[in-house]
């Protein structure tokens, strides 16, 4: 099912490493220029390229580029960590950071790096549990079952109890296959190098998802371990990890048509959606997200421009919001431009004929059953998107009312132990709200923009109950309601909080405006979750049938499962493209383009003085092109998505030639439908990265520890 051999489209597919042999991937890759064997890329019992790649932080990929655990990833992947270490006094976002020795490498609490230790096919085990009645088939998609199953397997494994080892079980091919993935997590990861944002984020929001690109989107970290090379929490006695595998770095350059493969952790694709589901993505998810995030970002952008303190506080939040705001805009445009709905309709017509010809009643009705669920769920998904974007993530000020409820009971019962417990919890809540990356006045302005917008976007009967308070007690004046909330809550400021904590009382809790706001918000959230769950009930099993049928229809051509943030391989070539009639984009850019884009009046296109000096002097060292120019970025046909950020781009000899960081505007429907002509991965050339580390950062010692192939 979905894994038989026949040549597939050369570039489409986020392929499972564990199926490489079964799908004869290496044969097809060698035809395009791969010089390695399949076992060199992935071997279940030997060291391979797989062991040089891992999960960086919570949602990116990183690769090991030295024997001493040096990690290369994107600047935007390391952005939160760079911001974490930044202050007005030490503004590493603006100025960059360069550790001149290992003693200067900065511990980064909370940052982790995970390697894939082992991958096991557990499909038969899970199917046997379904057959034996131990679990219902629909429950095998859910985290409760998968988490319990993974823990049971880990306990029975030879890896049980080993440092840093965890296990996760996940469905693939819509639940037609299941794999158990053992991960090894290192918790002492230190910041080593990061270019100024004017280099690492050059082009900013304007150039995001665009080509041509000139962003040197990289940052460098290092894994530290205990004396035995095992994972350990930060300790000054920890030592750099002696990596079992690191990538050699090629300075040989690239030409159009050269083989390129990417290994990484793509987050999520939806290639098996029906036409109705694509429409739902456009209207119930993307459209409200675009409107809401655009409104919030306008507020943040203005406040960040007015204050360096706010700029640093909100840098990571703004970047994260803006990225998928623009992605949603581009996706909806690309779906229309690339005729994705028409392509899906044609596939469904072919599938209907396949079902009829093969007398498969289950296949014949499955698309119609999916469409019925989608129609039913559209209104509640739209409301849920609005709720998530505004009340769950857009407005930060809020507290868990359950803690306040518990404290109220303890105060009423004169339970001293309970009062102590819940006031301590409230202190933690207060500190989590008023953290170093939160500004109360900025958030107040965000609330004043978003709460009226919420009332515009959803029906009156779908609003949380605090909107009645706005109408009844504040005569519809949103600003007055929000000012009362932000000024007069126990959690509004230190003075209010300390006054309450010194003498907790029930009356103050019951009258607290934040209590009513959050309780109303949580009630609506719980209601929407239940309604959406009910509306979508049965969809996963229908998808399981549909995907199984599609794989049979396309057989013997293999298909890759949707991305789910597990390790994947994609292969393709370095390649230019033609986005529109009369327009040709070549496959690479140079530092000359940075100078051409320079605009000192626009913070997105400022060029550091030192970079201009190096450019003017043509001081590019061994990193230059044969014609003397400095390479910047390049294009490949690799199939990537979010989560691949930071992934290594590797040549046919298994050497690092670049780091993936973006996709092109014309192919933003690629998560739903891959277009072989338009889909491009944008990567920063490894020579540009090394040039910045060496010549601008003055960190030749880092270059010295890498394995460089001239």
Automatic annotation (TrEMBL):
<dbReference type="Pfam" id="PF10459">
    <property type="entry name" value="Peptidase_S46"/>
</dbReference>
<keyword id="KW-0645">Protease</keyword>
<dbReference type="InterPro" id="IPR043504">
    <property type="entry name" value="Peptidase_S1_PA_chymotrypsin"/>
</dbReference>
<keyword id="KW-0031">Aminopeptidase</keyword>
<keyword id="KW-0720">Serine protease</keyword>
<keyword id="KW-0378">Hydrolase</keyword>
<dbReference type="GO" id="GO:0043171">
    <property type="term" value="P:peptide catabolic process"/>
</dbReference>
<comment type="function">
    <text>Catalyzes the removal of dipeptides from the N-terminus of oligopeptides.</text>
</comment>
<dbReference type="GO" id="GO:0008239">
    <property type="term" value="F:dipeptidyl-peptidase activity"/>
</dbReference>
<keyword id="KW-0732">Signal</keyword>
<dbReference type="GO" id="GO:0070009">
    <property type="term" value="F:serine-type aminopeptidase activity"/>
</dbReference>
<protein>
    <recommendedName>
        <fullName>Dipeptidyl-peptidase</fullName>
        <ecNumber>3.4.14.-</ecNumber>
    </recommendedName>
</protein>
<comment type="similarity">
    <text>Belongs to the peptidase S46 family.</text>
</comment>
<dbReference type="InterPro" id="IPR009003">
    <property type="entry name" value="Peptidase_S1_PA"/>
</dbReference>
<dbReference type="InterPro" id="IPR019500">
    <property type="entry name" value="Pep_S46"/>
</dbReference>
<dbReference type="GO" id="GO:0006508">
    <property type="term" value="P:proteolysis"/>
</dbReference>
């Amino acid at each position: 099912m979905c894994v038989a051999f026949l040549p597939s489209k050369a570039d489409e597919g986020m392929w499972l490493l564990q199926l490489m042999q079964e799908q004869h991937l290496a044969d097809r890759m060698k035809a395009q220029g791969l010089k390695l064997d399949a076992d060199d890329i992935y071997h279940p019992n030997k060291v391979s390229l797989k062991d040089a790649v891992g999960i960086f932080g919570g949602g990116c990929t990183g690769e090991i580029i030295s024997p001493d655990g040096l990690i290369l990833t994107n600047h935007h992947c390391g952005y939160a960590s760079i911001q974490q270490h930044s202050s007005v006094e030490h503004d590493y976002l603006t100025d960059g950071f360069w550790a001149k020795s290992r003693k200067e490498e900065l511990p980064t609490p909370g940052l982790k790096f995970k390697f894939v230790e082992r991958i096991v096919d557990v499909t038969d085990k899970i199917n046997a549990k379904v057959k034996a009645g131990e679990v219902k088939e629909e429950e095998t998609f859910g985290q409760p079952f998968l988490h319990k199953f993974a823990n049971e397997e880990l306990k029975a494994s030879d890896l049980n109890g080993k440092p840093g080892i965890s296990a996760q079980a996940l469905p693939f091919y819509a639940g037609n296959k299941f794999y158990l993935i053992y991960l090894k997590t290192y918790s002492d990861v230190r910041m080593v190098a990061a270019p100024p944002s004017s280099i690492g984020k050059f082009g900013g929001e304007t150039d995001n998802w665009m080509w041509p690109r000139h962003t040197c989107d990289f940052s460098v970290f290092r894994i530290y371990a205990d004396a035995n090379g095992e994972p350990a929490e930060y300790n000054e006695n920890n030592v750099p990890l002696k990596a079992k595998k690191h990538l050699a770095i090629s300075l040989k350059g690239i030409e159009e048509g050269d083989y390129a493969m990417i290994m990484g952790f793509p987050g999520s694709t939806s290639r098996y959606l029906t036409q109705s589901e694509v429409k739902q993505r456009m209207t119930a998810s993307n459209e409200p997200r675009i409107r809401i995030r655009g409104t919030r970002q306008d507020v943040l952008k203005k406040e960040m421009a007015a204050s360096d303190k706010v700029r640093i506080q909100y840098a990571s939040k703004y970047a994260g919001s803006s990225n998928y705001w623009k992605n949603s805009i581009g996706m909806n445009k690309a779906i229309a431009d690339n005729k994705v709905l028409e392509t899906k309709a044609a596939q469904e017509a072919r599938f209907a004929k396949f079902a009829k010809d093969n007398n498969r009643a289950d296949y014949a009705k499955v698309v119609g059953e999916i469409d019925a669920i989608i129609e039913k769920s559209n209104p509640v998904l739209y409301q849920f998107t609005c709720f998530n974007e505004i009340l769950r993530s857009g407005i930060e000020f809020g507290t868990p009312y359950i803690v306040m409820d518990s404290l109220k009971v303890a105060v009423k019962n004169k339970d001293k132990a309970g009062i102590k417990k819940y006031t301590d919890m409230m202190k933690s809540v207060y500190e989590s709200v008023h953290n170093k990356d939160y500004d109360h006045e900025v958030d107040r302005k965000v609330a004043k923009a978003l709460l009226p917008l919420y009332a515009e976007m959803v029906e009156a009967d779908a609003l949380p109950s605090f909107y009645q308070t706005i109408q009844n007690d504040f005569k519809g004046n949103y600003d007055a309601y929000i000012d009362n909330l932000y000024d007069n809550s126990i959690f509004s400021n230190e003075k209010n909080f300390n006054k309450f904590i010194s003498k907790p009382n029930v009356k103050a809790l019951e009258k607290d405006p934040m209590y009513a706001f959050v309780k109303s918000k949580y009630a609506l959230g719980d209601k929407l979750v239940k309604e959406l769950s009910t509306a979508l009930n049965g969809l996963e099993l229908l998808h399981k049938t549909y995907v199984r049928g599609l794989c049979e229809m396309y057989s013997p051509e293999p298909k890759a499962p949707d991305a789910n943030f597990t390790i994947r391989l994609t292969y393709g070539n370095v390649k230019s493209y033609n986005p529109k009639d009369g327009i040709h984009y070549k496959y690479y850019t140079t530092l000359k383009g940075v100078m051409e884009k320079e605009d000192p009046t626009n913070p997105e296109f400022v060029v550091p003085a030192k970079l201009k000096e190096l450019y003017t002097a043509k001081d590019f060292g061994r990193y230059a092109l044969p014609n003397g120019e400095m390479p910047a970025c390049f294009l490949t046909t690799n199939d990537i998505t979010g989560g691949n950020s930071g992934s290594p781009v590797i040549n046919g000899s298994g050497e690092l030639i670049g780091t993936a960081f973006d996709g092109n505007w014309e192919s933003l429907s690629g998560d739903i439908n891959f277009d072989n002509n338009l889909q491009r991965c944008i990567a920063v050339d490894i020579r540009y990265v090394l040039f910045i580390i060496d010549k601008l950062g003055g960190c030749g010692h880092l270059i010295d520890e890498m394995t460089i192939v001239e």
